[in-house]
Amino acid sequence: MAKQFRTYRFTNKDPVCDEVASLVNEAGLRGRQHTGKIATLATLAKATVDALLYGATRQPRNSTVMAIATSLGYERRWQRTTNKFELEAELKKAREFIRAQAKLKEKAAKSKSKKRKPRAKVTKGGHLRLVASKAA
């Protein structure tokens, strides 16, 4: 089970992958033919840039994201999204979230332990074959 964050959720790919792709498009470097140029600018491997923009990278490293963004002339800025931050209220929400995640993890562990585990069986021909054993 992948780690879930209370305030930063995504299911498949980290949204920062799409944000970086948007920055690349805005810089006029749309398309795979520009991957090498981006990699050179950011001093990254071409495969790293290609995987982040078009491939299997699900959670890129911050250093990779920043290397691409800053090489294209962007900088990161942090901005508060709420007017008032209430520590005690946020701690309460965080504790509730942690308890809920622990219950989900426990439930997943119980269902996993009920699954049949494979074991080896010798066939008539003398070969080993994996078969599912009965749950304990």
Strand content: 5-15%
What is the structural class?
mainly alpha
Can you summarize the main beta sheet? 2 strands, antiparallel
Residue-averaged pLDDT: 85
Give the fraction of residues assigned to helices.
40-55%
Low-confidence stretches: none
SSE series: HHHHHEE
- Measured between the Cα atoms of the first and last residue, the distance is 23 Å
- Number of beta strands: 2
Record the strand order, biggest sheet. 1-2
Number of domains as seen in the coordinates:
2
> Shape, please?
flat
Distinct helical segment count: 5
Radius of gyration: 23 Å
Structural description of this entry:
The longest helix is centred in the C-terminal third of the chain and has 27 residues. About 50% of the residues lie in helices and about 5% in strands. The chain is mainly alpha-helical and about 140 residues long. The protein has 5 helices and 2 strands. The chain folds into 2 domains: about 55 residues; about 45 residues. The model has no long low-confidence stretch (mean pLDDT about 85).
Structural features:
136 residues, 2 domains, two-stranded antiparallel sheet, 5 helices, 49% helix, 7% strand, flat
Would you spell out the secondary-structure blueprint of this structure?
Elements (H helix, E strand, L loop, with lengths): L14 H12 L8 H8 L3 H9 L7 H10 L15 H27 L4 E5 L5 E5 L4
Antiparallel strand pairs: 1-2
Short description:
The protein is built from 5 helices and 2 strands, in the order H-H-H-H-H-E-E.
